[in-house]
From TrEMBL:
Alphabetized InterPro entries for the sequence: ATP_synth_b/b'su_bac/chlpt
Protein's recorded name: ATP synthase CF0 B chain subunit I
Source organism (scientific name): Petermannia cirrosa
Alphabetical GO biological process terms: proton motive force-driven ATP synthesis
Keyword Transport: yes
Primary location recorded for the protein, binned into one broad class: membrane
Length: 184
């Protein structure tokens, strides 16, 4: 390696023979080399670079178009969803209002039915009480009548003889017979 660098360094000391030779000025040679490399790259790489940039541009435009189409589709879906939501909210309000009115109607029907049942029960209770009172009154009447009849019979038996007794019974039977003919 030392020999190769010595060779290039020794070339720098040679006197230039016309227009051809090695320039040992690093700044000047680098600028020349750099401009040559850039020129070659621009000349040969221009087409490749243009193709790469065109491909990239087409992919970006395609992505933008796809994004726009997706955005439009999403906006349409959003609008449809909003319309469906509004429709469902309206239906829910209608069901709610119908439900409330139905509940109120059922409540009123139940209250009316309960009032009717209570009224029937009250009437039944009053009828039962009236019936029981009448039965109790009739039982008391029957007992009073039986007791009065027994006392009367006891008094009659002790006061009357058999012929008077027989005439009283016959008169009462006749009176009862006349009463029966009047009622028939």
């Amino acid at each position: 390696m030392k020999n190769v660098t010595d060779f290039f360094v020794s070339l720098g000391y040679w006197p230039s023979a016309g227009s051809f030779g090695f320039n040992t000025d690093i700044l000047a040679t680098n600028l020349i080399n750099l401009s040559v490399v850039l020129g070659v790259l621009i000349f040969f790489g221009k087409g490749v670079l243009n193709d790469l940039l065109d491909n990239r541009k087409q992919r970006i435009l395609s992505t933008i178009r796809n994004s726009e189409e997706l955005r439009k589709g999403v906006i349409e879906q959003l609008e449809k969803a909003r319309a469906r939501l509004q429709k469902v909210e309206i239906e829910a309000d209608e069901y709610r209002m119908n439900g409330y009115s139905e509940i109120e109607r059922e409540k009123e029907n139940l209250i009316n039915a309960t009032c009717d049942s209570l009224e029937r029960l009250e009437n039944y209770k009053n009828e039962t009480l009236h019936f029981e009172q009448q039965r109790a009154i009739n039982q008391v009447r029957q007992r009073v009548f039986q007791q009065a009849l027994q006392r009367a019979l006891g008094t009659l038996n002790s006061c009357l003889n058999s012929e008077l007794h027989f005439r009283t019974i016959s008169a009462n039977i006749g009176t009862l017979g006349a009463m029966q003919e009047i009622t028939d």
